[in-house]
Every structure is written in C-alpha cells, then in structure tokens.
Amino acid sequence: MARRRRRSDIRDTAGEAAAFRQRALIGFGVVVVALGVLAGWYFKLQVVDHDIYAKRSEANRIKPRPVVPGRGLILDRKGRILAENEQAYRLDVTPEEAGDIRQLLSGLARIIALSPDDIARFDRERKGQRSFRAVTLKLRLSEDEMARFALDRWRFPGVEVVPYLNRHYPYGDLFAHVVGYVGRTDQGDVDRFGASHLLFPQTGRTGLERYYDELLRGKIGYEQVETNVEGRALRRLGLQPATAGTDLRLSVDADLQQAMVLAFGGLHGSAVAVDPATGDILGMVSLPSFDPNLFVNGISHTDYRRLMDDPARPLFNRNVLGGGPPGSTIKPLVALAGVDSGLRTPESRVFSTGEFFIPGQRRGYRDAARGAGWTDLRDSIARSINYYYYQLAYEMGIERFDQYMARYGFGQPTGIDLLGETAGIVPSPRFKATRSREPWYAGETVIAGIGQGYWIATALQLARGTAAIASGGDLHTLHLAAERRDGFDAPWRAVERPAPTRITDNPAHLRAVQEGMVNTIHGRGTGTRMAIGAEYRMAGKTGTAQRVSRRGSVSTDPRNLPYHLRHQALFVGYAPAENPTIAIAVTVEHGGYGGTTAGPIARKIFDAWLLGKMPEVEIDPVTGAPAAVAAAGPQAVLRPDVSFDAVVDSVRVMAPARLGPGNGGVPR
Kindly report the CA angle at 257 between 216 and 616, in degrees rounded to 5? Predict the structure, then answer.
C-alpha cells in the first residue's frame, strides 16, 4: 500500500512539459496575431489612411478665418462720398464658452454701457443660434469702453472685441431716400441669400443700398491661421483675399440736392430733377427726411417709435411709393396726344364758354378761367384752360386716352434703380372695375383730361414725361447710378441702361407744346411770377390737385381750408428753354396753388443748377420757423397719404363728387 502511494506522488514532468509547450504556443500565437493586427492597424493609419489623417491634423493646426470685404463706396457725380466705411469695434460673446450668461452680463454692465435694447437683441439672437457661434452684444464700442474691458479681459471667457467696418452716411438725412441705409444681417437675410450671407455683418435695407446690395457687399475671402492646442492664433500661413464691393458713382449732385431741400423752406413734398438728354437723376428729395445712420447698427426702440409716430411720415419715400392726381401738369402731354391723334392741330381753336357740357346731359364741368373765349393748343397750356381738355378727352375716348398716356410713361414704373416703385394709375374702365361695380361714366373721361379723377401719377413719372418734352421726344429710363468701379484701381465704366423710346414722331407738334409751356412762364400764363428777374428762359406747367371738390357753383379757396385738406401744389418744367439741361417735377403737400407755391420752389432749383445760386430760407420773426411753414398756421394738422393704396382709395371716394354740376379741376 505504501509503495502504491509513493508512485502516485511522483509528478508527470513529461506531461506537464508538453502541456506547457502547448499553452505557450497558443499564447505566442495570440501575441503574434495581436501584433499582426496592431501592425496592420498602424499600417492602415500610417500608409493607407495617411492622407485622411494628415488633412485632419492640418485642419486642427490650421484654421480658416473668413475675411469680410469692405462694402463699396457710393459717391455723387463730383466724387463726394455719400456712403463710406468706418473702422469700429464690437463686443462678441460665445455662449458655449461664457458660462452663466446672466452673471456675465451683470459683470460686463459694470464696465461697458449696455442698453436694454442691446440686451434684448442679444437674447433674441442667442436663442436663435448654436451655442458655439459668437453673438454680438454691443456695437460701436468707445475707446474708454475698450480700455476698461482690456484690463478685465481675463474675467470674461468667451468675450472678444472684434474689429469691423461700419457703414456711415456723411450727409445724414440729405440722401436718406436715395442712398437708403443698411441694417444688421438677420435670419431673414440668411434664408433669402444662403448660409454664407451670415458672414456679412450688414445688408442693404432701402434705397440704392438695397437695389445694388449684391454688388456693394463684395465677396468673402479667407485666411489660413496656424493655432496651438488651445486654439490661439500663432501666425498666418496663407490668404485668399476678399473681393471688395463695387463702388458706385451717382448722377446726383450734392449741391443741387441741398438746394432742393432749402427751396422747400420747411414745407413737405417731393421733387425730382432729371437730365433731359440722358434720364440721369440730378437730384431727388422726399421731405421730411430722416437720418439713415440711426439704422446701421439697429435702431433703438425710442428712435424708431419717434419716426413712426411722426404724422409727417419721414420714412415714407414720396417719390417712389407716393403719388396722386397730376392736375394740370398733365395738360401738355394731353395736348400732344390730341394733335398726334389727329383730333386737333396746333392751330385748332376751341371756344371756351367757361362750362363744358356732355351732349345730352345737364351737368356741366366748369372752368376756373371763366370763359376764356377762343383758345388754341399753346394758349390752353399757358392759361390752363380746362374747357379745351374737357372736350379733347371726351372726343378722344378713354381707350385712346389710355394708350397715349401709357406711351408717355404713366401707369408703369419709370425703371429707376430703386425697389418698390409704384406704377401709378391711368384712369380706365378696367381699373374702375377692380374698385367699383358701377360702370364707366363719360364724365370720368372728361375730368381725366385735366388730371383729376382716377389718376395716380408720381413725381418720377411727371419728371420723366417733362424731360421727354424737353429732349425732343426721347422717353428715357430714369437712373441714379451712372458709373461703377469694380476695384479701387479699376477704371470707371458706365452702368448699362435701355435705349429711350419716342413719345412722338412729329417735331412740329412737340414744338407747339414747348411753346405753350414757355408762354406759361414768359407769356400770359399761370407761372409768370417765376420769370421775375430771371436771367434765362424757362418752360413749365403749373398744377393743382384737389383734395376736396367744389360745391355747386361755389369756388373753394384752398387757403381757407384746414391744412390737411388743402390742394396739392404741383409744377413741371425745364430750363433753359432753348437748350434744356434740367427738367423737374415738384409736388408740395397742402401747398394750395401750383403757381404760387410749387412754381417758386422750382425757380430756386433752376437758379441753383444754372447759376450756382443757393436758395435763402426766410425765417418768420414771430415763430422763428421758416416763413413757408409759419404761413400754414399753428393749427396745422398733418395728415399725409399713408400709402399708395390709401391714395387710390381716396381717389375712389372723391371721384364721384367731382362729377357733379360745377365740379372741375383747379387750373393753376
């Protein structure tokens, strides 16, 4: 038994060695396989995927940084800057790095002036963006604010002072309705232009800034910046330069623009001055105006409310969005239509009894001229004889009348390089059908001949039509931008525009109309006051658009009406009469008569352009206000046309009243 126990205690060394060799072989195989896999993985990383990871590594080391181009300059015809870029600094916050936003804002408010508008705008934009994107907290930091922030910079992670170019308008409100303004780029702009547009800090909102926004803003560039592991920039390795925005040189003249504002003497209205030979806009004002610099970095609630609550509506562009009945200023073109249609000759005479009757009707259409007797084309323009145009429009018929007015550019945009231009309205049964179920009456055709009734014409259209008469019959597309420059060293080149169309092919007919317009001022017409002391000859036509109709046979003196119901005063004309270099249209809101209010304004504009004489504003010694404004009286209540649709609605309401007995246009 003891021998058997000793045999079992003896170890099987050979078996154990074999088992160990087997286990070692398996372990070695596992190690070899693992090393092989590791080697294969390293081979894949270092050889197969080398290019991929090299690019990723380079991307971690080199960061692309967008380079925003400078917005293009806007200059007047003499090279004076109307819109420029100024170096400025803003405060940007990256919410992901900033931590507690409320605590951050509280700390920043101790060293930087933050208005409620700044904080509200920041909160609104922060909630609409990813947390890793920087959001602007404050624009236009002062030097003191930047110095205070630099001392405490370490306390505000995720907050940076960023330089940028800020738009500035040196002439303030003088060109607000021409140049327009830019505003801060918002989500709506990104949705409209694409995600890359977010890199542009400002976007054109109105005027030329909006119309030519794509040209003015240029193209984004990029620079390659080497960074360390913390993301701090070390050096610039490469640059794809940004393409600067296109510069624009306008046809407008800053001196003439200033003269046009001064000529109004504080009255409200609009005026357009055109080069008859080209259709270039020499000056264009809408009064009152506003300071476009208020909008560049986001207008404050207080300033915006002040502008919106102003009853004179300074934000309303009267030339582009406004309009109203042209009154007697349309008569030269109606007279031209009469002779071109064959219904009249320049020498044809009509006997004005002072009241026109449609055959078979008892209602009459009175003439303020009170029976002018025999009158021809030239005399009808000069003395503004309504009877001549009542009869002519009636004989022409509304369809043919519409065709000629369309040829002269009415009822359609002028093509000016500003967005949102209204087309206006030429009286027609088709238009009336959109506003009323009543049929078209012959009386509505009659009053259309004197620029009343269903008429909406803008100052731009009136200036364009007048320029066509002055130029010998060429109807040009109106234009503000004359030349463009795609780079600082690039040459200026003309902005393309369509060829003009002809309003008449008979020079004799046009010459008769021109002579009638000259007689308006230098003969026995309604604008003879303008000729006093003039060193040159002018051609023109006064006009008055009624806001209230006459009652029976009683003539209404607009000076006895409440201010907001007074007639609109108009004037169209050109000078010098023999070789015109300027054609204008002037509209004065609540101005009364064209000959006494709009005409003198036009004369001052002519003097400024032809003689270099700036208007002098007379100050009322009692009120201290411009004399023209003081004459309106302290009880004046301003109620301007609020929109184009409102103008149309007012015409619809007032037109039937003008069809009654004794209702007719005011000739002056």
Answer: 160
Closest CA to 312 of 642, 29, 611, 652: 642
Instruction: Report, as an integer, the average pLDDT of 534-543.
Output: 95
Q: What dihedral angle (degrees, nearest 10) is formed by the CA atoms of 24, 28, 34, 39?
A: 170
Q: Which two tokens stand for residue 361?
A: 């009707």
Give the mean model confidence (pLDDT) for residues 397-421. Answer: 96
Count of CB atoms situated within 10 Å of the CB of 497:
17
SS3 301: helix
Closest CA to 632 of 597, 601, 604: 597
Contacts of 561 (CB under 8 A, 6+ apart): 548
**Sheet (strand 281-287) strand order:** 281-287, 269-274, 582-588, 568-575, 539-545
Residue 331's nearest CA partner among 279, 274, 387, 414 is 387
Asked if residue 14 has pLDDT above 80, the reply is: no
Residue 623, pLDDT score: 52
Could you tell me the CA-to-CA distances from 464 to 50, 245, 459, 461, 583 in Å, in that order? 69, 31, 8, 5, 8
Q: What is the pTM of this model?
A: 0.81
**Buried b / exposed e along 503-529 (16+ C-beta atoms within 10 A):** bbeeeebbebbbbbbbbbbbbebbbbe
CB within 8 A of 541, min separation 6: which ones?
Answer: 328, 329, 331, 332, 381, 384, 517, 520, 527, 571, 572, 573
Q: Which two tokens stand for residue 414?
A: 């002028």
Tokens of 315: 């934000």
Q: What order do you get walking across the sheet with 62-67 strand by strand?
A: 62-67, 221-227, 233-240
> How many whole angstroms separate alpha carbon 399 and alpha carbon 373?
29
Q: What integer is the mean pLDDT of 369-380?
A: 89
* 368, 560, 602 from 556: Cα distances, Å: 11, 8, 25
Cα distances (Å, whole numbers) of residue 69 to 74, 89, 189, 237, 534: 15, 16, 18, 19, 50
Peptide bond into 288 cis (omega under 30): yes
What is the residue-averaged pLDDT of the chain?
84
d(CA 267, CA 302): 25
Model confidence at 560, in pLDDT bands (50, 70, 90)?
Answer: low
Q: Do strands 182-184 and 247-250 pair parallel, antiparallel, or not at all (unpaired)?
A: unpaired
pLDDT tens per residue, range 312-368: 999 999 999 999 999 999 999 999 999 999 999 999 999 999 899 999 888 899 887
Catalytic residue list contains 384 = no
Catalytic residue among 251, 270, 286, 328: 328
